[in-house]
Specification:
Length: 479
């Protein structure tokens, strides 16, 4: 037996060992059947390349119980006893059965309680939202925490950095966390720029760790700005000039300004991500000031953080429960509509029991493959009577979910598998009739300018489009 024979035997042994290990890991840990079968096919029929791709992109390495916080008390485990709802009967606006199940769902998913002193202001468009955010930053006295999926090095990014530097120079404690993948090289770009200016800034899961611990498929998609621990901004808007000016490439979006006791658990979400990234624990009083309760308002809300390390798929269960509560209407505004089969089935069930289900999503997307995959996925919804509308340009990145006349879900989550199963997200679940009414008006304005996909139009697509959309539907877990 010569050298090449030995090499061939060792290569064959390596192939079987790596393939067996990768396939075993898929079978044990991949819960999505379609994704598991796709990974198994790639692993078996693409020797070494398939297992390598699975190692880099297929394994969830985030588990906050065993990573950097394993010897620390999680910030999110703390509780603040401000103006919270302690009994299901306190969830007014809902029927008794809805109160009990919504309350119990929060307990079982370890969500924050509902806060009764919540005030929410909608900020439509980047010109409005950024002006409000920058004004609040200019008035900061004690602390600023800022987290964004995309923080672009453009005119808007420069304005935010300027305000952060000015705040730091007047003694404000500043922390900034951006996602490395979303910010296109943040580790070498805006993060370094801010560090050079004396700002404490970090990139979440920098790609420099690709081989020491690959996290390339996991992203922090949260958007959060908190001023002095009392005023918060969240929603779907990134820090980018694309949200301003209404020029070519303009991206329409909506953000929210939030005040009240709920800001504390929102701050905890940032603090947990910051501790995960830097091991610095933010627990001083300037991050969590005492609140003066200014009386009850007609709005209650709670925080729903989610991510691959949470282990509970909180957002999926939250959406499923909200869909099950609907008695008259469900309205969904989302840039991407490719939810898991469980949510598609729940929406179909809602239509069959008489609920009007409407979805508005862009006709022209920044990732057009997702639109094709959606077209291959929505047949069952259209057949039973759900209404899918395609909005005209500009691309609408807004995320709003309205049930009946009082329930609104706002935040960073898109209705796709990546957002619901892989990304770190932050949503706010609201029982606010006034906010629900304003969001319904906004939704219906966009719906009136959008094109309804009729069953005839859907069914009359040519053979090429049907084949293209069907094939891309199979790849939806990766889009």
């Amino acid at each position: 037996m010569d050298f090449y024979d030995v090499l061939n035997i060792l290569s064959l042994i390596l192939y079987f060992v790596v393939t067996f290990w990768s396939g075993l890991h898929v079978v044990l840990y991949k819960k999505n059947t379609r994704a598991a079968l796709a990974w198994l096919g790639l692993i078996i029929f693409s020797p070494l390349f398939g297992p390598f791709m699975y190692y880099v992109f297929g394994i969830n390495r985030i588990n906050r119980k065993v990573l950097k916080l394993n010897k620390k008390e999680s910030i999110l485990s703390k509780g603040y006893g401000h103006d919270i709802v302690t009994d299901p009967e306190g969830l007014k606006f809902l029927k008794k059965s809805q109160r009990q199940t919504l309350f119990k769902m929060g307990e079982n998913l370890n969500l924050s309680p509902f806060y009764r002193d919540t005030k929410i202001k909608e900020l439509i468009g980047g010109d409005v939202a950024f002006k409000e955010m920058l004004t609040s930053m200019s008035r900061a006295e004690k602390s600023i925490t800022l987290m964004s999926y995309i923080f672009e090095d453009d005119d808007v990014g420069a304005e935010f950095i300027k305000h952060l530097v000015e705040a730091k120079n007047r003694g404000v404690q500043v922390r900034v966390l951006v996602d490395h993948v979303g910010s296109e090289g943040a580790f070498e770009g805006v993060v370094s720029k801010m560090k050079n200016l004396g700002i404490k800034a970090e990139a979440f899961l920098p790609m420099s760790s690709l081989f020491s611990g690959p996290y390339a498929n996991l992203r922090n998609h949260r958007k959060l700005l908190i001023i002095d621990g009392v005023t918060a901004f969240t929603g779907g808007m990134n820090i980018s000039s694309r949200h301003t000016g209404h020029n070519e490439g303009y991206v329409r979006d909506i953000h929210f300004k939030i005040s009240g006791s709920i800001v504390h658990p929102m701050q905890m979400v940032f603090a947990d991500d910051w501790a995960f990234t830097t091991e610095e624990v933010l627990n001083e009083s300037h991050w969590y000031p005492q609140f003066k309760i200014e009386g009850h308002r007609d709005c209650m809300a709670r925080v729903v953080p989610d991510g691959p390390g949470e282990g509970s798929e909180r957002t999926v269960w939250q959406l499923l429960h909200a869909i099950s509560m609907a008695s008259s209407s469900i309205q969904i505004l989302t840039p991407y509509f490719l939810p898991p089969t469980s949510i598609m089935a729940a929406l179909k069930s809602a239509v069959l029991r008489g609920v009007e289900v409407e979805v508005v999503t862009p006709e022209v997307m920044d990732h057009q493959l997702i639109h094709y995959a959606m077209m291959g996925s929505v047949r069952d919804l259209i057949v039973v009577g759900a209404k899918i509308f395609l909005s005209k340009p500009p691309f609408d990145h807004s995320k709003i979910f309205i049930v009946d006349k009082c329930y609104v879900n706002i935040g960073s989550s898109n209705w796709d598998s990546r957002s619901l199963l892989l990304n770190f997200e932050l949503n706010i679940e609201c029982l606010c009739p006034d906010l629900a009414n304003k969001m319904k008006i906004h939704f219906e304005g966009l719906r009136g300018q959008s094109r309804l996909i009729t069953y005839e139009q859907y069914n009359n697509r040519n053979a090429f489009k049907k084949l293209r959309d069907g094939l891309l539907r199979l790849l939806s877990p990766y889009l």
